[in-house]
Amino acid sequence: MGVELRQVARPVGYDRWHVDDFLTIGTLDLIGGGEFDLVIGNPPYRHAERFVRRGLDLVREGGLVLFLFYLTF
Hints:
- The protein is α/β, with parallel strands linked by helices.
- Helix content is 22%, strand content 29%.
- It has helices spanning 27-31, 48-58; strands at residues 2-4, 17-19, 36-41, 59-67.
- The strands form 2 sheets. The chain has a two-stranded parallel ribbon.
- β3 (36-41), α2 and β4 (59-67) form a beta-alpha-beta unit.
- The radius of gyration is 12 Å and the shape is globular.
- The N and C termini lie far apart (27 Å).
- The mean pLDDT is 86.
């Protein structure tokens, strides 16, 4: 399952694909009320904290959140 802000075709290997804003897309749109085992991404650095908080909201207990940021974050 993936979410991408830009209008791009669904990549091979994804069962579900949403062209939307990761920070505002509804949880039910993403996963039908369940939780993710892993949230991973490469968001804009100026929104780092917002992405981390959103990722933590979506991941199940014991799941992983991984984003690519500068070490100074």
